Amino acid sequence: MDNITPNDMTAIVEADRAHVWHHLLPHKPLETNDPRIIVEGKGMRVWDQKGKEHIDGVSGGVWTVNVGYGRVEIADAVRDQLVKMNYFAQSAGSIPGSRFAEKLISKMPGLSRVYYANSGSEANEKAFKMVRQISARQHGGKKHKILFRHRDYHGTTIACLSAGGQEHRNMQYGPFTPGFVSVPHCLEYRAHEQGLAGDDYGVAIANEIEKVILREGPDTIGALCLEPITAGGGVIVPPKGYWERVQEIVEKYDILLHIDEVVCGVGRTGTWFGYQHYGVKPDFVTMAKGVASGYAAISCCVTSEKVFDMFKDDHADPLGYFRDISTFGGCTAGPAAALANMKIIEDEGLLENTIQMGEYMLDQLWALSEKHEVIGEARGKGLFLGAELVKDRKTKEPADEKMVQAVVADCMAQGTIIGATNRSVPGYNNTLCFSPALIATKDDLDQIVASVDEALGRVFG
Ligand code: PLP
């Protein structure tokens, strides 16, 4: 804020109030309250326009800034690249594009090709289009349906919302794209609502996917698209046996497996990718947020060579190659930032830190549940955690959304930024979310948990 005077800041706030349409926000309150403007960041902390310091428990609000704020080495890498070569359409290659693809693939055995784009939604759209084109070329268009899971989210475009398992995000935006079919969520804590509670829940709920496939006709299903661990839909860590059974099912029915790593990818769960906890073999992996930790816009749709091979040759079919472009997929800032981001994760041992700190924080959340009845369950993997709030531990009736939001607001007032799962739909608007940067220390996590402790005490008494 060095060279911004108080008068400048007043003008900035007023310009924001007058002209900026913020994401995911009802704006009426901003007519009387100041919009929040984040001015500076360093490590785990950010400062707002009033100079107030916050510890960031959600890495830029939406699980993005994996390596923390103020990373000069990423900024330098981007600057050096931009002055040399900022952009050329990705029908040609670039030095950072080539280097990052090689580096990324070295972390993803079994996969081989990187398709560059800009956002998680766009990367998912690429995969959907590839599935549809494979169906058109190899199955006369019949094997075109894409299965998605209730409570998963894959992005904001109409096709991504068509694959969206969070009802409130879709309401009022239809009609949607045909050919997307829902399968049940796999949250063990709420298995009783599906009539499936028991030791074999993981296999039983995966078998529900098979039932949908048989109902629709296996020869109509092109792909299954899943988050490895559901993020905004409730921080849902799949139960034991689930992924193994999913893998068997997709192989049995010749269905392509698309894993959406937009949140889990690049270290968030303590492995490079969330699916790597489960030994599954995806055909597509999409990623965005943590790829460059928000230092540049980049997303990737990574595929196997088998998928790539299907688009290689246009001799037999002049329409046979992937006729798709993302203009800004040719920006070199993205892969330059992504390379520097990955180097930091390696050099600083951040995967290991994520596992250790994640276990520590999960323990702290369970410890908090001994004091606060309202915490029904704490769950997560690595530094990707949630605490589900309930009115009653026996019935598991979800806590009131207003109270959940009051906890988030109370933490904010204390200078601690936490999140909560998506609003408006009863059943999964009641989970507090935590995704601190992978550099978090025990002291940082203690500070976040202490704020939650205080907030829960004040809000729930
Ligand atoms: N997939 C998942 C799992 C997400 O959580 C999100 C965004 O939150 C997306 C896709 C969409 O990414 P983007 O907002 O970059 O389009």
Topology:
Elements: H1 6-19, E1 38-42, E2 45-48, E3 53-56, H2 59-63, H3 72-84, H4 95-105, E4 113-117, H5 120-138, E5 145-149, H6 158-162, H7 167-170, E6 180-183, H8 201-216, E7 221-226, H9 242-252, E8 256-260, E9 284-287, E10 299-303, H10 305-309, H11 333-347, H12 350-371, E11 375-381, E12 384-389, H13 401-413, E13 416-417, E14 419-420, E15 431-434, H14 442-460
Parallel strand pairs: 3-13, 5-6, 5-7, 7-8, 8-9
Antiparallel strand pairs: 1-2, 2-3, 4-10, 9-10, 11-12, 12-15, 14-15
Helix pairs in contact: 3-11, 4-11, 8-9, 12-14, 13-14
The site of pyridoxal-5'-phosphate (PLP) has 16 residues, from helix 5.
Structural class determined from secondary elements: alpha/beta
Termini distance? 39 Å
Mean pLDDT: 96
Question: Would you state the CATH class of the largest domain?
Answer: Alpha Beta
Main sheet: strand order: 4-10-9-8-7-5-6
- What is the CATH superfamily label of the largest domain? Type I PLP-dependent aspartate aminotransferase-like (Major domain)
Shape: globular
Helix-strand sequence: HEEEHHHEHEHHEHEHEEEHHHEEHEEEH
Number of domains: 2
> What is the beta-strand fraction?
5-15%
Rg result = 22 Å
Main pleated sheet: 7 strands, mixed
Q: Count of DSSP E strands?
A: 15
CATH topology of the largest domain: the name is Aspartate Aminotransferase, domain 2
Instruction: Tell me the number of helical segments per DSSP (H or I, 4 or more residues long).
Output: 14
Oligomeric description of these chains: single chain
Q: Could you name the ranges where pLDDT drops below 50 across 5 or more consecutive residues?
A: none
Helical content stands at: 25-40%
User: What is the annotated CATH architecture of the largest domain?
Assistant: 3-Layer(aba) Sandwich
Bound molecules: pyridoxal-5'-phosphate
